[in-house]
Amino acid sequence: MGFLDSIERGLEKAVNGAFAKTFRSGVEPVEIASALKRELDTSATVVSRDRILVPNRLTVRLAPADHQRLRRLGDALLEELSGTVQGHARSSGYSFPGPIDLALEADEGLSTGMLEIDADTEAGEVVWTAVVDIKGRRHTLRRGRTIIGRGSDADITVDDAGASRKHAEIIWDGTRAQVSDLGSTNGTTLNGRTLKTALLEPDSIIDIGATRIVYRVLAQSKERS
């Protein structure tokens, strides 16, 4: 980070701090997401022509009131923020040395509306897990074939009259995934386009009937035997 960048960040912290102390406005999740993206950008280190390394341990420090309010959102908030961090890293060409470890902590030294981020690097073995988010529920995809549909014999059942009993399938091999329509009545779309079979990119949106399915790939620690 250059000298001018340091000055800019210092001014930003001073202005934000004065604003928070004056107006006592609480921190919102979108502000945390933006701050996490900035932290990755400013901490990025080029280690080779093909690899830019960023910290994978991120701690968001908040005023006690903000921390208490945001923690009521539960694990869903941390999952969304982790997804935002992974998405930003992917689009920017960044690499993590290990699985993302994201946490929120209360800091008595901060006023309501203020936040600080501590970033650190911790190496570790990573395994990739594919999941789909459907109507607020997260389903982990096993390796091989997962059928999604209205029928009770589908691997993932959706309560949707517009979906066929066996509507679509996702095949995950541990690294990549593809989605296929199984001859459904109303068809399947991927990111708004009708498909028969297509490769899945992280954060893709699959629609069957009136049901929206979000496909994600998450980095997790590899358990040691």
From TrEMBL:
Q: Which residue ranges does the record assign to the FHA domain? A: 146-195
Keyword Nucleotidyltransferase on entry: no
Q: Which CDD domains match?
A: FHA
InterPro entries attached here? Answer: Cell_Proc_Reg/RNA_Proc, FHA_dom, FhaA_N, FhaA_N_sf, SMAD_FHA_dom_sf
Taxonomic superkingdom: Bacteria
Protein's recorded name = FHA domain-containing protein
Q: Name one Pfam family in it.
A: FHA
Which PANTHER family does the entry mention?
Answer: NUCLEAR INHIBITOR OF PROTEIN PHOSPHATASE-1
Q: Which UniProt keywords apply?
A: Phosphoprotein
